[in-house]
Write a structure and sequence with these properties.
The chain is of the alpha+beta class and about 475 residues long. The protein contains 12 helices and 17 strands. The strands form 4 sheets. Strands 6-7-8-11-10-9 form a 6-stranded antiparallel barrel. Strands 12-13-14-17-16-15 form a 6-stranded antiparallel barrel. A 3-stranded antiparallel sheet has the order 4-3-5, covered by helices on one side. A hairpin with a 7-residue loop joins strand 3 and strand 4. The longest helix is centred in the N-terminal third of the chain and has 31 residues. The radius of gyration is 27 Å and the shape is elongated.
Length: about 475
């Protein structure tokens, strides 16, 4: 370090990278002395790295060759630090010097997590999705440190306070945004937006309804996902309450920041809200026009009059963009005014009366197009009649239309019922009539609120023909 070139940040940085390579290649057992040497390399390297990163971000508009060299130099630096600290962590638990290294476990693990996360972030710069092994690494480090009670022990890195849980959360949040399509400056701006938010929501072990919004499974090789109705508490499940962060990002849209930054903050909020919805199949491009009935009134009318075209509700033509087993994406010429959660029914040919039921999950603007993403709730929704059993006390005796939402085996879910709010009482017996068949149900918990219509679980307790029931 004493002989580093003084006239060129790049040359000095490259010499440090070579030093880290030699440090890792020595493959010696970790000791307290080696840990102090590594911290000296880190202390010397981080200011140089920050200047290299600044050059890399500023050189995006030109100097393509320099841009690639600076990205590679930065990525190697983060990778070597991540590898060195991970090795140090392993020896702190199982090496011959574990007794003297154990008091520094929080310091070591926080650095291992931080640099592993930065390697993943630099992969985003090259439009590369982080490898499954990268997610396994950060999950395993966090799980280990949380188990031993060091997750929130304060640590100083580059003169800034942090801790293991905070670094892990930063990795998870950037994974939720999934910024593969963003430019370098935008990725770094997004990372700074998240890093600058206080208090950052940390993973918790007990799920709280109406508080937690996202979930991460430490046993999987992937990041967090939106919490829908998976309220199962598990040994390796962690829950995040991201609503305050989303509200904060949305509030920046009215701030005095530049218009582009305001728009980006709004997009990040939307991406986190819908982020991580698991897709078991890749989306495939599928272009063409479909017909959409938006809102429950139009959906019920569309399902009720398959042959009476004069009574058919006004349908909107939408352009399909892509499709998967779990949903559809649309590209619209006009900005939609439909809120998230709004129900729509989609068909390719209204005369065939073959509808799919979807819910709007996200929307964003991209290069002048208004993109909308929808989650499929059912491929074969059916309009049914519901009413309470006369023996149910204080319940409305009015009949009402509802939607039976059957799930196919491909959807990997259970059938639900969409009912008006007036006809919901947890555990109450409800009668459902579908043509000549009458079902007796017991209402379960609310899965989601769709603008006054509740999607609820149900148990079928009886079935009989209508003539016999009458």
């Amino acid at each position: 370090m004493k002989s580093l070139p003084a006239d060129s940040d790049y040359d000095a940085h490259h010499a440090l990278v070579e030093g880290l390579e030699r440090f890792n290649a020595e493959n010696e057992a970790a000791t307290l002395s080696r840990m102090k040497s590594l911290m000296k390399l880190e202390e010397m390297g981080l200011p140089l790295q920050l200047r290299i990163v600044d050059q890399y971000v500023r050189n995006q508009a030109a100097f393509r060759l320099a841009r690639e060299a600076l990205w590679r130099e930065s990525w190697v630096f983060w990778s070597l630090l991540a590898e060195a600290w991970l090795c140090m962590l392993k020896h702190a638990y199982r090496g011959p010097a574990s007794k003297e290294l154990k008091p520094f476990v929080a310091e070591i693990a926080t650095r291992a997590l931080r640099y592993a996360g930065l390697v993943m972030r630099w992969d985003y710069h090259q439009a590369r999705k982080p490898a499954a092994s990268a997610w396994r690494r950060v999950h395993k480090i966090y799980r280990l440190i949380e188990r031993d009670g060091f997750a929130t022990q304060p640590v100083q890195i580059n003169a800034r306070p942090t801790h293991c849980a905070r670094e892990y959360t930063l990795v998870v949040l950037l994974g939720l945004v999934h910024p593969l399509g963003y430019r370098t400056q935008e990725i770094e701006f997004i990372a700074q937006l998240i890093d600058g938010y206080e208090p950052l929501p940390l993973p918790e072990t007990v799920p709280l309804r109406d508080v937690h919004t996202h979930m991460v499974d430490l046993s999987l090789s992937e990041g967090a996902c939106v919490l829908d109705h998976d309220w199962v508490q598990g040994r390796r499940l962690r829950y995040l309450a991201l609503r305050p962060l989303v509200d904060h990002l949305k509030s920046l849209d009215q701030s005095s920041a530049a218009e582009g930054e305001n728009r980006l903050a709004q997009q990040v909020a939307s991406l986190i809200e819908r982020g991580g919805i698991r897709r078991h199949r890749q989306r495939t491009h599928r272009f063409g026009r479909v017909w959409v009935a938006a809102g429950m009134d139009n959906i019920l009318a569309a399902l009720a009059h398959p042959d009476a075209s004069s009574a058919r509700p006004a349908l909107e033509p939408w352009m399909l963009r892509d499709e998967s087993t779990e949903g559809m994406g649309f590209a619209l010429s006009d900005e939609p005014t439909l809120p998230h959660g709004r129900l729509v029914a989609v068909t390719w040919d209204p005369s065939e009366n073959s509808w799919q039921l979807l819910a709007i999950r996200w929307n964003r603007n991209e290069e002048g197009q208004h993109l909308v993403g929808m989650q499929r709730l059912s491929r074969h929704p059916k309009r049914v009649e519901i009413y309470f059993d006369p023996e149910v006390p204080d319940a409305t005796q009015e009949k009402a239309w509802a939607l039976f939402v059957p799930m196919s085996h491909l959807d990997q879910g259970v059938s639900n019922l969409l009912i008006p709010r007036t006809h919901y009482r947890l555990g109450a017996p409800l009668v459902l009539r579908d043509g000549d068949t009458v079902y007796r149900l017991r209402l379960g918990e609310v899965q989601e609120n769709h603008e006054g219509w509740l999607r609820v679980g149900m148990d079928v307790v009886g079935r009989e023909r209508f003539a016999v029931a009458a």
